[in-house]
Amino acid sequence: MTTTEAAEQPLGIGEVAERTGLSVHALRFYEREGLLVGPVQRTSGGRRRYTSFDVDWLLICVKLRESGMPLADLKHFAELVRHGPGNEAERLRLLDAHRQRVDAQIQALEECRSVITWKVGVYAEHLARGEAGGLWDPTT
Questions:
Q1: Considering the entire predicted model, what is its pTM?
Q2: 23: nearest Cα among 58, 56, 68
């Protein structure tokens, strides 16, 4: 068997869970919710068999979800991909809107980090001078 043939061998649900970081339960949920772009193949015994394309798609889904994309948007994106060529502009709008939300979250987190960094500096400076007493002391 060549490397290409090995890469094209169908994968079981456990293997896909391991490769994507999704639980078996989450993989079944993604399938039920129509978040995959193609039907999951089944063996004659009913066991799910995934392709490398399925894994690649799921890895994208994981990142979109980790970055806060709502399930409804992810489902819509999957529907657009399933419909094939001709809706790329709509896919772009959906992804760009999500990117803008992520950019806003990053900006907000950077502002939070700046405040935390400043406060860490205040405490470190006071502790280094031995003057930490009274910092945010509600009894004074």
A1: 0.81
A2: 58
Locate 69 and state its tokens: 């994309």
Residues 49 and 34 in one domain: yes
Domain check: are 65 and 98 in the same one?
no
Q: Are residues 73 and 93 in the same domain?
A: no
Domain hosting 106: range is 87-131
- Assigned domain for 138 exists: no
Nearest to 34 by CA among 66, 70, 106, 82: 82
Beta strand 48-49 with 41-42 is antiparallel
The count of C-alpha atoms lying within 13 angstroms of the C-alpha of 28, restricted to the half-sphere facing its C-beta, is 5
Please give the average per-residue pLDDT across 66-86, as a whole number. Answer: 97
Q: How many domains does the chain have?
A: 2
Mean pLDDT for 63-79 is: 97
Contact 42, 10 (CB under 8 A): no
Tell which residue, 92, 113, 102, 39, has the closest CA to residue 70. Answer: 102
Tell me how far CA of residue 4 lies from CA of 9, 41, 119, in angstroms.
Answer: 9, 20, 55
- For 14, half-sphere exposure in the C-beta direction (CA atoms, 13 angstrom radius) is 1
